[in-house]
Input
Amino acid sequence: MTFPVPRDIPLPLPAPEGLLEVLLIVSFIVHIVFVHMMLGGSLFSLFCQIKGLKIPAYETLAYKIMQAVTVNKSMAVVMGVAPLLIINTLYAPQFYASSALIGSAWMAVIPLVIVAFLLAYAHKFWWHRFVNIPELHIGISALESALFLFIPLIYMTNVNLMLFPEYWPEVRGFFSAMLLPNVLPRYLHFVSAAILFSSLFFVWWSGRPSFQEDVKFSPGQSLVIRRFFYAFAFGATIFQIFSGLIVFVSLPPQGMSWGVTLLLFFGGSLALPALRWMWANISHPENSVDDHFPRIIALFIGALVVMGVARHEYRENALHDHKVAIAEKTANYMAAVAEVQEQAKLVEQARHTGMEEPGETGFKQNCAACHHHSLPTVGPSLEEIRKDYAGNPAGIVRWTKSPGKKRANSMQMPGFPQLGDAELLAISKFMLD
Ligand code: HEC
Output
């Protein structure tokens, strides 16, 4: 099988490959948790703001949520640097190729992130200024959420495309890469994870004493709000299981193995007891709702880690053949480089031992870059020069010592003050030979 993969950059990795892989998984999980809370928070803030038009307590809640969003957003960005750098290091040829294939969308991440962040700040810091113009305020919030939803889709399209060089020749820009099998199911799985993790985050957050002091909700209201988030976490988990199954069947078989399958199902099954406890919290008739919170969190963190490992295993499997092909190309390249270096050494030796014709080395070193033997390149070809200077090597010497300007569409030839008359004569004779 041939893949359109480039060769690798022949540089040693800065750390053992296994260590980089572990760091990639860990740093990615940390990053994605904050991305989930950023995106989910933005969506919740929008949702509560709309609900707040009728029930004012939700407006207060929307404002509080928004305060967490900007913090989570900063964390998501900072924590995204490490996995991005490690991906670039471990999968340079694949990742650069897929980034180039969706080039403009990939570059658009930068302005889109800037605009999304500015909108998030406007949404949060001008809250009280906008509160009487709800259309504008909700509009800003909606635009911010839309951008937070769209940016991860670009990332996902890229990291998916990088896995399948088989598709590279067919891909025509971002949208065609986005429509490859598996991207959209994976994206839905991601969005429901964002709702799930941010709901759980807000269950914890809205239970803190400082939150209670700030919002001054009655105990009954606080309970309603925590149930509200638990209900979303519950629904998102169900959706997560279904979208996970769709992802599973739509994953291209290249990366599948029994190990990956077992990990995926094990990770997914951790959600089942969590569902049960969340249901208990939602349907509990009494006042307390967070009896099981630490257990639920532990299960979901466990599921996240297992899924992170499975994701990495899948990537390694999918890329295995390409990695072999890339290694081979890189080895060929290194061999070609070694050959050229060897040849250069031989030329140098021949110069010292006088094995080359006189003038040949001087020509190769000084003139050959611009004068091909039969084709006009930067300067005229040797064939052309021979016509003008046949039997007249001294003429070439004269020209080279002070080149003129003859041909309208070529550059001016540089001078060669470092070459003495004897060497120039040898070069000229060689050129006319
Ligand atoms: C950086 C490119 C470059 C290098 C290196 C170079 N040349 Fe040239 N050479 C030119 C160009 C361009 C012309 C055409 C200039 C013109 O016609 O105005 C030219 C023209 C010539 C001509 C034809 C002059 C004529 O009367 O038509 C000779 C002879 C020549 N070069 C000899 C040499 C020799 C000998 C060397 C090496 C010592 C050399 N060149 C290195 C670019 C180069």
